[in-house]
Amino acid sequence: MHVAPECFPCLLRQTLNTLKSAGADETRQLAVLREVATYLSHADTALTPALFSEPAYGIIARSMAVLDPYASLKKETNALALRLLPDTRNSMLQAPDPLAKALQIAAAGNVIDAGISHQTDIRQDLERQLKLPFAVNDTPALRALLKRGARVLYLADNAGEIVLDALAVERIQRFGVTVTVAVKSGPIINDATLEDAQVAGLPKICTVIETGAASIGVDWNRATAEFRAAYQDAQVIIAKGHGHFETLHDDPHPGLFFLLKAKCPVVAKQLHCAHGDLVFRHAARLRK
Asked: How far from the centroid of its chain's Cα atoms is residue 135's Cα?
């Protein structure tokens, strides 16, 4: 998946959202936006949208001298998700298909995306998403691959939603499989790191590893040997969010699934769904 024309204004909006979150005044906002616009004038459009976006966050961090502009938002959304967890767990347990419901809850959590869809009322938006059904639901294909002893790699996306991911991990483990969750090795937008995984309680129920990079999606040039091995050895890979879809869109792994909310028309078109849909898509179906 390569950069589309829509990615240019989208990145400028992401830049402005991040600057506001970091408390930049209008003078600083304009200066950084100009620098990002200069970058855009010579950016490599053969990149994935995820990797295309990363230099903008480097510009912001350097300008603001803040390593993690979204640190407070990540704590807030983790706390929010923890408060919602008992009700979402009950909803999962009462559903006709608890596995599909757990995945749908995890997909709804993908709305917590400070880059693509800056939220003004995160709780209200998340609660609304939790009521939406899947537009695309390949749970049967996943269930067929969850053989006892299989290895599952779950690529976490954002803070906050990683708390809801824990429900999906717990449900998947009931099939007698081994689950490893991968998080980013440093702050990038509001993506989940090891600290967020710990807040979600994931190290208590499964193995948690880092990808090796503070990257949007997967950057194989910076991936650790541990992450590469986990990816290659997994029979099932569940990749959360836009960044993982953008960077793994063409990956031939037969057990790869994408779990996300389609938050832009470009990604929705690639997923064969509508903008705003909740999707659990077996990657193999996209190659047909």
From this structure: 18
